[in-house]
Amino acid sequence: MSDSSTANKTPARKITAPKIRALKGDRKIRMVTAYDHPSARVADRAGADIILVGDSVANVVLGRSDTLSVTVDDMVSHTAAVASAKPKALVVGDMPWLSYHSSREETVRNAGRFIQEGQAEAVKLEGGRKRVDMVRAVLDAEIPVMGHLGLTPQSVNAMGGYRVQGKQAGVAYELISDAKALEEAGVFAIVLEAVPDLLANMITDELTIPTIGIGAGPGCDGQVLVYHDVLGYGEGHMAKFVRQYTNLSDIAVEAMSAFFADIDSGAFPSEAETYHMPAESAEVLEDLNKPRTSSLMADEAMER
Ligand code: KIV
User: Fold this and answer.
1) What's the predicted TM-score (pTM) here?
2) Catalytic residue among 121, 126, 183, 193
3) SS3 sequence, 64-93?
4) Is residue 270 part of a domain?
5) How far is the CA of 250 from the centre of ligand 1 (A)?
């Protein structure tokens, strides 16, 4: 575990896609996912360079078993929540499955929604040479694009599961060609997910744009993990490449149990947590609310 006290915290100025590109060879790039305003604040305060509003929201927030069911509407809504935190970090919106597969026009319209409605500053999409045409279309609309190669979760059915990609030389060579094609098309960075370190190192050395690894070894130009995995906020299987830095679920259960115990005992709310009425209003209210005898009510009626 690194010494967080030495980490360079939130950068002074807004990070842009060209700045991320320029970080190659300078220092490691820090990227994490986030899906809402408070998590974006946490990531930004800790010094993230890039906040990815990943379609992993499907798994870690919406409780789904894969990412295929999230829509552009879902993603744009989460992206807007993240962007509302006004982070210094670059906000990248993850284009969901089928939002960039059918035509250039639809791809640009969907990517544009991330920018106009979600206030993202770039989009990410999965795939290599097969997607280069769509990458170019988005870039032509002046939207920076991040690539994503290796284990691309939107291809889970085609890949036959979530498996490390590029263990065989032939497949690895194809991935190098994909990375070069994406670079040539103009992406500003590429995520490499679940690939052998040797392959990640080769791609990192060959490209002039940064690679950001997740399960791709230490040689990439940056690293990314899913927010809930870093903080241990969730349950279930953790991939080998995940390092959990705390256990927020346990901390949250402990805090919530203390709240419930205070409800049970009456210790919550306290005097300081309670609103009071000014004394004169209390007097008037008590008077108004006094039980009245029927003769008193009759007297009052006569007086009116
Ligand atoms: O959706 C996501 O969280 C991602 C990261 C794993 C890179 O694509």
Assistant:
1) 0.92
2) 193
3) CCCCCCCCHHHHHHHHHHHHCCCCCCEEEE
4) no
5) 24
